[in-house]
Amino acid sequence: MEKHNVGIRSLGSYVPEGIRDSFYISEASGIPEPVIREKFGIKLVHKAGPEESVSAMGVKAALRALDGMDPKELDMVVYCGSEYKDYYMFNCAAKIKYDIGADRAVAFEIHNLCSGGVYGLKVLKAMMLQDPSLRRVLMVSSSKEGDLINYKDTDSRFMFNFGDGAAAVVLERDLGRNVILESAMIADGQFSTDVYVPGIGCNNRDNFDNMTYEDRFLRVRDLKDMKSRLDPVTLKNFCGVMEQAVANSGYTNSDVGFIAPICMKKSMLVGLLDHFGLTEDKSFLLEDYGHCQSADCFISMEEGLRHGRLADGDLVVTISAGTGYTWASTVIRWGPCDG
Q1: Spatial separation of the C-alpha atoms in residues 206 and 3, rounded to whole Å
Q2: Other residues' Cβ atoms within 10 Å of the Cβ of residue 203
Q3: How many alpha carbons lie under 13 Å from residue 209 in its C-beta half-sphere?
Q4: Is residue 168 helix, strand or coil?
Q5: Cα distance between residue 316 and residue 330, in whole Å
Q6: Which residue in 80, 123, 227, 291 has its CB near the most CB atoms, within 10 A?
Q7: Which residues contact 332 (CB under 8 A, 6 or more apart)?
Q8: What pLDDT sits at residue 189?
């Protein structure tokens, strides 16, 4: 039986010109700048202006990923980014499809917070292998969650690295290179209500008029309690889900050549690299981007290519985590390959 594959044809990203650096975050939060830079690992994040929407950033990333390819060649456009979009209850995939002129494409959305992009590769690979009519698919992630951060709320300080930006990836059936292999996920629902925007949703539908200013932002229900449960499992689950994705793909830890991570502190990334026997030049630290939701791993790969850290033959392991909590990883064999 003929064996088919799905590969990454191209990548593209976009970040706005606005900047919130460690000094800005220090002034806004009252936390000393050395703590912001060294303990939190935040150098700077990008901030979109009020006129720059989630879909608009997604369109810019999409056009860069298409890189001259006619959008009419796309069979599907998928949005997998932040649920905080241009409007409440709004189809961002359809908007991006229309704005780039992908007239033939169908459109739908995948949401899983910050792990939606990594696990979205698994979803779309399965769809494309099952349905030969889906030959070229555009997946877009975009985030403006910087709007949702209240720097006066120090209980939400682990989210101070949230930045605005977008990334896009063009997938192609039987491309024969940059082939998407297998994935893995760990999901722990005990964290599902630890982080939320309390003022919006069906549980607060009849109380909109009484919504406070603070209720518009991402909040942590009980930071001490969440950390007591999350800290002991974070590194273990990162390593565990990556190992499982590698094993599912038919490889071992020693085969890993590049790690494309979600935005994380340098100490955490170094820990992951050490676990797989890699040095810092086999990944990319997103200290000049901040956390752009599920766009992070694609930005990491793009920067890896730009800096010569990601090369043909590398086994790429993407890794992300989303509040809820889910840890997800997908493996890609970079460069020309048969399967």
Answers
A1: 54
A2: 10
A3: 1
A4: strand
A5: 8
A6: 80
A7: 8, 121, 178, 179, 180, 181, 315, 316, 318
A8: 97
From edge to edge, which strands make up the β-sheet containing 106-109? 106-109, 76-79, 136-143, 165-173, 6-14, 177-187, 326-336, 315-322, 256-261
Domain 1-339 adopts which CATH fold? Peroxisomal Thiolase; Chain A, domain 1 (3.40.47)
DSSP assignment of 269-310: HHHHHHHTT--GGGB---TTT-B-GGGHHHHHHHHHHHTT-S
Q: Write the burial class of residue 28 (CB in 10 Å: 0-12 exposed, 13-18 middle, 19+ buried).
A: middle
d(CA 324, CA 326): 6
CA–CA dist 327, 324 (Å, integer):
9
| Pairing, β 326-336 against β 315-322 | antiparallel
State the Cα–Cα distance between residues 216 and 147, nearest whole angstrom: 9
Cα Rg of the chain, angstroms: 19
Rounded mean pLDDT for each run of 10 residues along the chain, 339 residues in total = 90 97 96 92 94 97 97 98 96 98 97 97 98 98 97 95 97 98 98 95 86 93 97 97 98 98 95 97 95 98 98 98 97 88
Tokens of 325: 């909590």
- The residue ranges of every structural domain in the chain are 1-339
- DSSP letter assigned to residue 262: P
Residue 202: other Cβ atoms inside 10 A: 6
User: Helix or strand or coil: residue 88?
Assistant: coil
Give the torsion through C-alpha atoms of 287, 58, 260, 182, to 10 deg: 160
* Separation in Å, CA 307 to CA 20, 122, 283, 327: 24, 27, 10, 27
Start-to-end Cα distance in the chain: 13
Name the helix (H) or strand (E) containing 118.
Answer: helix 116-130
- The pLDDT of residue 338: 65
